[in-house]
Amino acid sequence: MVGLILLLALRILEWLCPTLITLSLYSLMHLNATGFTRSLRYLSIRLVTNWRLGLAVLALLAALSQFANAGLIYAKAWLAPVLIADAFSRSLASGERVKPWPWADTYPVARLQMARLGVERFIMDGDSGHAMAFGAGMAGGTRPGEPGMVMVGGHRDTHFRFLSEVQEGDDIALEYDGEEYLYKVFATVIADARSGFIPSLMPAQGLLMVTCYPFDEVIPGGSQRFVVVGERIWPKASPQ
């Protein structure tokens, strides 16, 4: 509850920052009272008549707004995982999907762990840009426990950065709907998304973890993908 209140406060501050600056400038241009407000009005006249001073003040206000927004982004980045973890725990307890905050359009559906790398990631429902802003996203289609390949995507510079360290034979634990599914890394593949990236040798039931490649690419949006293929080892895959 405390985390949710903090996130709501951050959203209000995010809206207030530019609004307060706009209102301040408007007030400076329209104050008619005496004393302190007269001084503010005098300052507003100076800002209008001295364009250099006016530009400097506007630049300062813009910089302050940017710093404030950057601080809010970092605050939300710290708080969101806490709320997502709590939502996942409540989902397990209730058996129902729980949103991390009321206005979210996604929710956590799984928890992924790799013991060798000390990795724990919560997987959000869907692979939209909004869902993947807060975690890796599970694409629609095959779900854990069903025949076929479960596909999970994540950004190479945040939630799926660790894929650069994955090795063949690594174990992957995926908790979904209160059940734990174990996978072993079958292969890693670098492929072109335009021509498909499914390797020719594919386990009957498994997990695909996909991210953009190269990991250190400066310009995003390329067509290359780094794909980790995991074969399900528990529960044992049903024979096809």
Strand content: 25-35%
Spans of 5+ residues with little confidence (pLDDT < 50)? none
Shape: globular
Mean pLDDT: 81
- End-to-end separation in angstroms reads 47 Å
The major pleated sheet works out as: 8 strands, mixed, barrel
Total number of beta strands: 8
Could you state the order of secondary-structure elements as H and E? HHHEEHEEEEEE
Number of helices: 4
- The residue fraction in helices comes out at 25-40%
> Mind telling me the C-alpha Rg?
25 Å
The largest beta-sheet arranges its strands as 1-2-3-4-7-8-6-5
Which structural class do the helices and strands define? Answer: alpha+beta
Give a topology summary:
Blueprint: H1 2-30, H2 36-49, H3 51-94, E1 108-114, E2 119-125, H4 129-132, E3 136-138, E4 148-153, E5 171-176, E6 179-192, E7 205-212, E8 224-234
Parallel strand pairs: 2-3, 4-7
Antiparallel strand pairs: 1-2, 1-5, 3-4, 5-6, 6-8, 7-8
Give a verbal description of the structure.
The protein is built from 4 helices and 8 strands; from the N terminus they run αααββαββββββ. It has an 8-stranded mixed barrel. By secondary structure, it is of the alpha+beta class. α1 crosses α2 (36-49).
Search tags:
8 strands; alpha+beta; about 25% strand; about 240 residues; globular
Short description:
38% of the residues lie in helices and 26% in strands. The protein contains four helices and eight strands. The mean pLDDT is 81.
